[in-house]
Amino acid sequence: MTGTLYIVGLGPGPDGWLTPEASAALAQADVLIGYKPYVDRVPAREGLARHASDNRVEIDRARQALQLAQEGHVVAVVSGGDPGIFAMAATVFEAVEAGDPAWRALDIRVLPGVSAMQAAAARLGAPLGHDFCAISLSDNLKPWDVIARRLEAAAHGDFVIALYNPASTARPQGIHAAFELLRSLKNRETPVAFARAVGRADERIVLATLGTADTALVDMSTLVLIGSSETRFVPRTGAAPWLLTPRTYGAGR
Amino acid sequence: MTGTLYIVGLGPGPDGWLTPEASAALAQADVLIGYKPYVDRVPAREGLARHASDNRVEIDRARQALQLAQEGHVVAVVSGGDPGIFAMAATVFEAVEAGDPAWRALDIRVLPGVSAMQAAAARLGAPLGHDFCAISLSDNLKPWDVIARRLEAAAHGDFVIALYNPASTARPQGIHAAFELLRSLKNRETPVAFARAVGRADERIVLATLGTADTALVDMSTLVLIGSSETRFVPRTGAAPWLLTPRTYGAGR
Q1: Does any CB of chain A come closer than 8 Å to the CB of residue B134?
Q2: Looking at beta carbons, which residues of chain A come within 8 Å of B58?
Q3: Are the C-beta atoms of residues A109 and A120 closer than 8 Å to each other?
Q4: CA distance A82 to A115
C-alpha cells in the first residue's frame, strides 16, 4: 500500500492566506518535509515527523518525500507561496522523471497557494491588472543570457514584470544588472515597487520609478514589480499612492 | 463615518481554495457586489444585501461599491480567482482615479485568491515551474496588435504562456488567431493544456501539442497553457501524464 504526497503551498506567511485545502493536508500528513523556514511555520503535533532542510537540497528533499510516500506515508512537502511558481512542484516532478519508475504510480497532489506577486499586488492596489510576466533571477540553473533574453522580451512586449528571487547568494548582482538592462529598454519614469515580506511582521513597501529605484534595498524576501507603459500611481489621501495597471490599453495617449 | 471596501478573490470555485481572510471579509460585509455567478457562490444570510450584475458593467459596479463604502457600508466586491489578475481590483482603482476625490480616502483592501492558472497548474503537475507570462485574450479594451505583439514577445522570450479569457463574446476568433501566430513562432511539438473549470463539477483537462491542439474545445471557462521549449510530459502510470517545466534551462540539449 502506498501513501500520498501533497505538495503544499503555505502562501506568503499569514494564516489568513493559508487555504483550507492546505490546512486539511497538513492535518492529515504524518511526515512534513521542506526548507526550514517553511517547516517552522507548521505547528508541531504528535504523530507528525518533521524533516527541515537547507535551501540548496531541493532535489534530495523531493526524492526523500517520494520514497516516504512510496513506503506508505502521507507526506506534505511545504513551499512558501504557491508550490507551482518557482517552488517545489517542479522539483518533485523532476525527481519523478529521473527516479524509481514506481514513483509514477504515486498519488501526488499539488495544492496551490497565494504567491508572493499576488500578495504584493494586493497590498499595492492593482499593478497586475493587465498582462504580466514572472521571471526568477535566482538561478544557478539558468544562464544569464536566458534571463537577459526574457527581460528584453518582457520589455518589448510591454508586460508588467514580477521578479522573484531577486538577490540570490549565487547571483547577488542580478538585480542590478536587470535594472541596468531594463533602464536601457523602458521609460525611466515607469513605476516600480519593492514589496518585502508582505503580510509578515517585517513587511516593507518601497515605491519608486525605474530610473531612480535603489536596487540596494532589494533582498531575497523582496518581490520586485516593474510596470508596463500603462502602469501609474493613483494618489491616495493620507497614505502612499496605489499602483494601477488599467484594463484599457492606450487610452491615455 | 466611512466604511470599508473589500475586493475579494473567491478562487476558482471550491471552498477549499477560499482563503480564511476572504471568508472573514464575506462574513463581515453588509453589501455584496459582483458578476452574478460569483455573487451566487456566497451563501445568503440575514443582513447581507446582494447586488448581482452582468459582466459588461464592471465600472458601474465599481462605482456603486465605492459609493456604498463612502456611505458607511462594509462592501465586498467579489471576483473569481484573484481579483488582482484580470479582475475587479483594476476596475475599482480606475473608478477611484476618475471619480469622487473623497473615494481616495476610503479604506480599500484587496484580498488575493488562487487564480485560474494556479489551479490549472496544480492539476497538471508543474507547468509553471519556470518563467511564465499571463495574457488576456478577452479584451475589447485592448487592440489586437497589442495582443499579437505580446504573444510574439512571449514566444521570443520562450516563456510558458497562460491565456486568460480565451474565447470572449467580443472576440471569439482570438484563440484561433493566437494559435495560428504561435504555431509560426514556436515548435509545434510544444505541450499545450486546456484546463476547463478546474475544481468544479464540469472540470475537463485536455492535453495536446501546439501543432495539433483543437482550439474549438476552448471556451470562456478554459485556462490555456502553452509550454516553453523546456516544457515536457512526464509519463504517469494509469493516468494522463504530468506536465513539467523544469527549474533547469538547456539541460536537455
Answers
A1: yes
A2: 247
A3: no
A4: 5
Task: Report pLDDT digits (tens) over A100-113.
Answer: 999 999 999 999 99
Report the alpha-carbon distance of residue B88 to residue B135 in Å, rounded.
16
Contacts of A135 in chain B (CB under 8 A): 131
**Rounded Cα–Cα distance for residues B13 and B89 (Å):** 18
CA distances from A28 to A37, A39, A87 (A): 21, 15, 22
The dihedral through the CA atoms of B133, B136, B141, B143 has a sign that is positive
pTM score of the predicted model = 0.97
Distance CA B109, CA A95 (A): 40
Q: How far apart are CA B173 and CA A38, in angstroms?
A: 44
Measured in degrees and rounded to the nearest 5, phi and psi for residue A246 equal: -70, 165
Residue B157 and residue A154: Cβ atoms within 8 Å? yes
pLDDT digits (tens, 9 = 90+) for B60-77: 999 999 999 999 999 999
B156 touches chain A (CB under 8 A): yes
Shortest CA gap B226–chain A (Å): 14
**Closest CB from B89, B133, B149 relative to A132:** B133
* CB < 8 Å to A234, chain B: 93, 96-97, 104
| ipTM at complex level | 0.97
